[in-house]
Amino acid sequence: MRRLTFLALVSVLSLSLYLTATALEAPPQVTAPAEPVEAPVWSLVPIAPPLSADMHDSEEWIPQVPALPEGVIYTDIIPTTTTTTTIPLPEWTGSIPEVYGDGSGCTQEEASIIARALWDRGASDETVTKMLRIISRESLCDPSAHNGNRNTRDDSWGLCQQNNLSGWFDEGKLLENYDRFAFAGNFAYNAESCAVMWEECGVGPWNYGNYYCSTPRELR
Fold first, then answer.
1. Measured by CB atoms within 10 angstroms of the end CB, which terminus of the chain is less buried, N or C?
2. Do residues 75 and 115 touch, judged by C-beta distance below 8 A?
């Protein structure tokens, strides 16, 4: 009996020593590092599905917009439109005098340019008609008209035959800022010089035999 017990102990001890030696000889276990987890990228651009062999150009693809994180919202972008409103210029609809008969007065367009220049300075429609008559008489509504007859003391220019010899264009005078040589090529510019003279002098400068400059309203 003692012999059997001794043999059993020897067997258990031998097995224990074997297992211990085997564990020491085994290579160490290496644990692979965990792969980094990419953070989700949020984009408002639709994500296209991967192409496959059975996908054709004729197939309809409905873009999928990813869900937004909590606290993030879509912002509607509303395009703005700029509207430009053009206000038409007022036109002259009254009579257009022709002192010397057909063709001696202004055209409708020319009369409107003259009227606007006068209206800007407070002229009435009655005054516009009066000035259109004067312009027809003085120049046939021709901004290039020039009377250079020095024997009659004339050196008159443009639509209203404004006389250079009277000193209107001299420095410090009413028309010092106007170039009489530019009247022929710029109808509106010449019309403005006529309106400036009317505003200051009424119709006095164009009264035959009694040229004068007076501002009372009744003389206009």
1. N
2. no
Q: Could you tell me whether strands 146-147 and 156-157 are parallel, antiparallel, or unpaired per DSSP bridges?
A: antiparallel
Q: Is 63 helix (H, G, I), strand (E, B) or coil?
A: coil
Dist CA 101 CA 211 (whole Å): 26
> 163 φ, ψ to 5°?
-85, 120
The amino acid at residue 148 is G
Backbone angles phi, psi at 16, to 5 degrees: -65, -45
pLDDT in tens, 63-85: 666 666 676 665 655 666 777 77
At position 46, the amino acid (one-letter code) is P
pTM of the model: 0.61
Cα separation, 128 vs 105, in Å, equals 13
Residue 168 falls inside a structural domain: yes
pLDDT tens digits, residue range 72-129?
665 655 666 777 778 899 999 999 999 999 999 999 999 999 999 999 999 999 999 9
Count of other CB atoms within 10 angstroms of residue 84:
4
All residues at 6 or more sequence positions from 163 whose CB lies less than 8 Å from its CB, including other chains: 153, 154, 155, 156, 157
Q: How is residue 184 annotated by DSSP? A: G
Domain range spanning residue 133?
108-219
Q: Which helix (H) or strand (E) holds 147?
A: strand 146-147
199 contacts 121 by C-beta, under 8 angstroms: yes
